[in-house]
Known about the structure:
Layout: H1 2-30, H2 32-35, E1 43-49, E2 52-55, E3 63-64, E4 70-71, E5 76-79, E6 84-89, E7 95-98, E8 103-109, E9 112-119, E10 121-125, E11 137-142, E12 145-158, E13 164-176, E14 182-185, E15 192-195, E16 202-205, E17 212-217, E18 224-230, E19 237-241, E20 248-251, E21 256-265, E22 271-274, E23 278-285, E24 289-292, E25 297-301, E26 306-313, E27 318-326, E28 334-340, E29 345-351, E30 354-364, E31 371-372, E32 376-382, E33 397-399, E34 406-410, E35 415-422, E36 430-437, E37 446-450, E38 457-461, E39 466-475, E40 481-484, E41 488-494, E42 510-511, E43 518-521, E44 528-537, E45 540-547, E46 551-554, E47 560-570, E48 582-586
Parallel strand pairs: 9-11, 16-23, 25-32, 34-41, 42-48
Antiparallel strand pairs: 1-4, 1-6, 2-3, 2-5, 5-8, 6-7, 7-10, 8-9, 10-12, 11-12, 12-13, 13-14, 15-17, 17-20, 18-19, 18-21, 21-22, 21-23, 24-26, 26-29, 27-28, 27-30, 30-31, 30-32, 33-35, 35-38, 36-37, 36-39, 39-40, 39-41, 43-46, 44-45, 44-47, 47-48
Amino acid sequence: MKKQWKRLLIAALSSSSVFAATWFWYQSTADTHSSNSNEKPLAYVGKVVEDIQRRPASRLLWQLVNTGEPLYNGEAIRTSERGEVRIQFVGSDRYLDLEPESLIVIKKSEGEIALDLMEGSLFVNAKTGTAEGDAPGLVLNSANGKVDLSQASASLSKGRGDSVDVQVLEGKASIKGSDGQSKDLTTREEVKILTPLPQKPVAMDAENPESVPFQWQGFPANSNVTLWVGPSRKQLKPLLKAAPNTNQLMASLPFGRHYWKLVATNPQGSVAAESAIYKTEVLARYAPTMVFPTADAEVPAMQTPYDMPFKWQMGEDTRQMTLELWADDQLKNKISTNTFTKEDSFTARGLKAGSYYWRMTTYFLDTEKPSLGKVQKFTIKPASQVNAKVEFVPVQINFTMPEKDMVQYYVEKPRLGLSWKVDKSENVSAWRVKYHTEEEDPALAQSFDVKEVQNTQVQAPVAKPGRYIASIEALNKDGKVLGTTSSQILTVSPLPLLEAPSFTPAEGTLQASMDGRTQLTWNAVEGAKEYWLTIRKDGKELKRSKYMQNSTALKNLLPGEYEVELTAVDTYGRNSQSGPARKLLVPDKSNVRAPTLKKIKVN
Length: 603
């Protein structure tokens, strides 16, 4: 009997050690950061639009990815129907933009970074200098050979079968075939696009949107050229036809991203030629917000000459501003011109009583064309002549949301969550909330007033998910604007479902012990309040149980093969994504031997 207990103890210790080793292995690979602690990342995630997912090389499940996260060797990244992501390579200014419905794998071998485009399209910008010495080569693996993109800007898309279409926009690229020979790749397009430049954004004043100019050369003579536009490469539709025998047209496009191409037809209506497909983003640019003076302000002066203060809020994409000041409405008698890069205030010294006119001109980061603000007027008057009933004290308002381009998630109805602060709340009688979609004309923005001045946060209902631009104005008791926030871009998106929990170990058949007991463990899913375990046999559900922890012990299962499936439930009662069902094997034999009778004596 003593030997049997010794055997049981040895078996228990062996099982515990195997379980501990398996658990340690799983935990060491569960976290991307920890599993790559000794490995340097190849790239980082830049700007993210909609839902983007990654799959580390050592994992089977897809995970949501956020801005700033590192990407390691062998990782796969995929985009949703409207998703886009910028991937910034380490040690250089190179990057790639992955377009909607695309899948790519990033690898590193033999001192170079290799891209495997499994589906979809992307844009690579490698024709830039490196930040830290020489960066590794950048290549694309294709069915025809290895394409070197280390000195090129190119647009790539997965064609039929295993082929990849490569369109070199700038620089040079080469392809090395299976025979080891390299051949230069040059763009041999009959049609050349003059404007807009491929992959370059088109920026315009949000208050005065303009048409986008399209210019080209190379189409056959006497052909009719039509502009096709759509939200993706697969959804292009004819938008506008150019005048006969011309090589340009002006198209009104809403703010946002657009894919487009030019198609030329002959007089018989057949397609004579067409351009490649390009992507252009139309950006809304907002002039700096003037805090003081506001339009047609009457400024009380205790004495003249008066030192007139100007105060504004600069946007993040502003690189330079110019403030011009005149003493007449014909703008002939200019008092001063001052240029600013980081300043947010200026004082015009020694102004006499009277009316003055000013204008702010803005230069943005990615365009040379300046945005001219409206000419505004203010009047300096002795304090005794200013209407005492109109108390005008400028205030400064700032949003308190955590970041620009932030994503706000919702469960049932889409809403904009806005919060702000003000420096002189005692002078404010109401708030005016304004918001519109990124594509809409700002003049048609929705607005409503908040009378409770102490309430500096609101939930503004919106019709659908998407990108919105919002601002807040402070009003005095006479309805005049005392100040306004800078415009803020926010993305409203449905709250993603939780990731499916996965059993430990991550692969293989789950095994019960010889006595039918089964210890099940799974990864804890962030945001889950409970887990549901379903047990099936031959397709029939036997049991469904709720657990608050990420482990359980099953017993009394008859020998046989079962399927177990896990689902996490979030705090809103929504089930997570469903993970793959796992096989659970309960053996039909016991490892416990019966006592042996060695000597039997019969009298």
